[in-house]
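Deliverable D4.2, example record:
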Amino acid sequence: MSTSQDILLRNVVPVGRGHTGKEKSDIRIVNGQISEIGPELKKGDEPEHDFNGALVSAGWMDMHVHLREPGFEHKETIASGCRAAAFGGFTAVACMPNTNPPVHTRDVVEFIRKKAESLPVDVYPIACVTKERKGSSISEMADLQEGGAVAFSDDGDPVFDSRIMRIALEYSSMLGMPVINHEEDLALSRPGHMHEGRVSTRLGLAGTPGIAEEVMIARDIMLAELTGGHVHVAHISTRKGVDLVRQAKIKGIRVTTEVCTHHFDLTDEEIERTNFDTNFKMHPPLRTADDVEAMIEGLVDGTIDAICTDHAPHSIDEKEVEFIYAPNGILGLETAWGVTGRILLKSGRMKLDSVLEKLVENPRTILNIPVPKLAPGEPANLTIFNTDEEWIFEKKHIRSKSRNTPYLGREMTGRALAIYNRGQFVLNT
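Output generated by the structure prediction step:
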């Protein structure tokens, strides 16, 4: 990692909103602001870095990560999570509130913001819907917003009580903020350890059926229609779930959704193939090939608004146990772009501009965060990357404090090369 307030970025190709993606340019950054963009800019006193035709866009955002701090610093810290984000090309993350203590009071929101203020990655805390994430009484939403929270979620657990969810949507709509729900009917899903289907039957594992997710999505859509509130469906994973969101959007109901990179790449068959490798255990679980195809279709037609990771670090001793005892969750920040490039871009299923909308604009729009612009006079918030570099993800690429990834030894397509944000230049080496 290197830091430089002023820098001249040579031979980059601006892409995304407002750019053709055809012209090679230089970008001069002075005092953390873009001062010039153009071909062959005059040499100045600042250091230079030549990117040899790499692409540059406004900085990416992952709106669903777990930074684990406070309370679980043995898994991840805000600093180590931001290192992973920077390596993955992200200049912003929104962190979930299932910490210890949970993000259910203003002081915890402000603690997270304080810990992140010197880092090159913007960290936006998501606060709890209910006090202590227990699902029984609403948190002090207005106070949490004033402290810097950008949304409400009890992620890791659903807001299971329909009355509480209705009240949450009514209050949050007055504040202009979304409620992000972990869509799971607990009575239908537990004690599931993987997707319920043919593979779970062969393996003799209790499964979580897709209907457990879909029932809650349907409920939340109906409550959003009733209240006028904004429901954001976290980490969607089933075909029927995508269909429900698609139909709700057609009706004009305020619902948005996201998909994790692993849910448009991996299937439940990986668990059998790898002989119960716990790095393939997550929640929602890996689903079927048809569900994976539905995620891609949802991204292509715009039903799915954002690409995220649900980056969920766990220590080695927590994951190196029998499959049924292992916690759910995998790393995602370091591999997100390599998976996205391989599945969406290399295959030709999506164009680059459409993918960037789901990484740059839509996550911030959902959370009411200003979208950075790649233009002179704007704060320098940008990601430098390529879309065609073939590389193998190895242990040396992990920047997280944990190691629980299913992608070791797997081929990636496309790589994040550097970010610039908050006056700091971070070059991936």
